[in-house]
User: Fold this.
Amino acid sequence: MLLPVTGVSVVALGLLLLCAHYDAPVWTLAALAGSMPSMAAMVRARWTEIYRDSPRLHTAYALEAVIEDVTFIAGPALSVLLCTTLFPEAGPLVAGALLAVGVALFVTRRDTEPAARGAARTVEGSALRYGSLRVLVLALVAGGAIVGTVDVVSVAFADERGQPGATGLVLAVYAVGSCAAGLAFGAVTPRTPLPRLLVLSILGTAATTLPFLLVNSVIGLAVAVFFAGDFFSPTMITIMNLIERIVPAHRLTEGMTWATTGLAIGVALGSSLSGAAVDASGPRGGFVVAITAGVVCVAVAALGYRPLVAAVAAGHAPPPGGDFAPKAGQDAAPEGEGGTVAVTAATDRTDADLEGAPRDADLPDGATATHHGSDAAGRGVAGAGRAGANRAGGAGAVLAGSGASDPASPVDPAAHASREADERQQCCVDCG
Assistant:
């Protein structure tokens, strides 16, 4: 999809420059400016494929966040330099050329391209039907509103102080703070659970908006936005880590695209609301918008904390009606060929999920599953479901999970505790 979408984007950018050059109505500029492929999601999806279930994935996400911050620092300065030294349209024109070349090089790297996942047998709908993903997207909308507010109010504040040229410095300091925090955060492996880490980073984001009301100089504003930027990259990195944990592998790129879309919506919303507030009440009115967005962000994180904890514990749960997709390097054999694919995924399924279920209950994914575990009384519980074996590629599926206690297993307290600590579900797909 990237090549045709990028073609549309480059053409739209060209039309935008033509409209600006020939003084077309302003609405034409707004209509053409937003067409852009979601490269951030595409790149992160490849990192996920390379480093899935590895601590290095956290570092890769941090690298992406830092690179984005660097573009926010260098991009405007480079664009202004080109536009002022060559011709007014030079900056966006070079950006369009870089996009076209970069995407062309990106799509040729087949060695890092995620493997095609088995298509679902039923229409799944949007990945937004996962409540935990909606929580993350809403948090990014609120967080993006803070970024958009800083962009707009910094201009008004510097202009009010008679230093309009200092706006670029303030915005660069904001990006530098985020960049430094991203480097530091990516260099460590957090031991704090991701949902809790998200709440802490969002609390920090909201708290750092409060000093905006106290600043009375451009230098003071630069210091305030530096500390505000310190929480931006860690929050983004944590959210991307959460999406990788809660969204099924075959919907990962869509999930990450929703995240970047939520951020873009928030930036646009914050810019619009803060612009109106500045017109009505001056820069401090705009800062109130940032503080309000911080409060909303905290509320979203608080209300969504328990669903996020449950979603992370469940791991990559298959969507209703979907197929179980093998991980990278574990592709199922094509139709007519024999083969076995083993996929291990963390699960928080407890025996309570199976209480009262008939032994031959139909599972929504069309698989045969067996689960052994212990109920509240310590007895083994088994549940099984069976459906047709006529699956994509002519494959039938068997799921077998070993829980905390298996009546057929010898009593081993150490092994029992180990299984209790990290329950696993084994998915074996018998192809052909």
